[in-house]
Amino acid sequence: MTDLLKGFGIAITRPLDQAKNLSAAIEQQGGNYILFPLIAISPLSDYSTFDGKIRELTQADWAIFISSNAVDNAMPRIIKHYGILPDKLKFAAIGPQTAKQLASYGVQHVLIPHERFDSEALLALSEMHAVNHQRIIIFRGIGGRELLAETLQQRGAKLDFAECYQRINPQINCKLLDQLWQENQCHALVVTSSEAMRNLLAMTHQGNDEWIRNIAICVNHARIAEEASVAGLEVYIASAPGDASMLSCLQQALQKKLHLPLK
User: Fold this and answer.
1) What structural domains does the chain harbor?
2) 36, 10 in Cβ contact below 8 A?
3) pTM, to two decimals
4) Which of 239-247's residues contact partners 24+ apart within 8 Å by CB, and which partners?
């Protein structure tokens, strides 16, 4: 165990089941983690529309999964329906974690970007350019960015969505983080989705509450930083996906913010 984060309180806004590894890593660095999910993943109340979409998989060329949540909420129902996945169906995912989750359901060959892991990087792959007249089903939660679907449609693909979960904000307000900041127990905040950032801004008067203007916010993608930066908040962007890069981002942010010497 090292002490690079010793004495620092770090709030993690990921869904609880996705915060475990980062929480453990912060603790190993001597820090104190605060679980404050701004996103909770909830099943749909009615899967009839989704079940109709998966019945069309035999006519699809590609199944694209936006997140691990999409995998976990879709694959059990797909496997239950088909038993064996359609032979000609190809799989793509936003990044390696989503591909790893697909592998746990028996999907071994998954197209993923090589460096950045977002819609833009997936769209840059040659396979995603050669989609004219191909049928693509995007598995995701309700709502979300439209860039992937719109671009693939412009390239001639026949697009459909299979929405298999919903995201909710489990928090009513940010009083806990405000109080912890006032008690010098919360020094940084980890935000890893644009929706979580929007929820955070909405509950802090668009970033105007005192506590959030005096705290380091670490994100894992420049897109997530955009609205917070416009609001004048202090945002740091991890250099790469993954918990190791987020830990490094936290260390650098706290050292810079509190004018600490590098360890």
Assistant:
1) 9-39+170-257 (3.40.50.10090), 48-167 (3.40.50.10090)
2) no
3) 0.78
4) 241/95, 241/96, 241/97, 241/117, 243/21, 243/22, 243/25, 244/25, 245/220, 246/22, 246/190, 246/192, 246/218, 246/220, 247/4, 247/5, 247/22, 247/25, 247/26, 247/29
Q: Measure the CA–CA gap between 148 and 124, rounded to whole angstroms.
A: 11
Phi, then psi, of 168 in degrees rounded to 5: -130, 160
Question: Who's near 75: CB < 8 A, 6+ residues apart?
Answer: 102, 105, 107
Tokens of 35: 């679980």
Q: How far is Cα 118 from Cα 93, in angstroms, rounded to an integer?
A: 9
Residue 230 token pair: 């416009």
- Residue that is written with structure tokens 């769209």 in the block: 123
Which of 257, 260, 261, 236 lies closest to 248 in space, CA to CA?
Answer: 236
Check: CB of residue 142 under 8 Å from CB of residue 166: yes
Question: Which residues fall within 8 angstroms of residue 261, CB to CB, at 6 or more apart?
Answer: 255
User: Over the chain, what is the mean pLDDT?
Assistant: 92
Q: Residue 257: how many CB atoms within 10 A of its CB?
A: 15
129-148 pLDDT per residue, tens: 999 999 999 999 998 778 99
Residue in 53, 39, 8 with CA at minimum distance from that of residue 26: 8
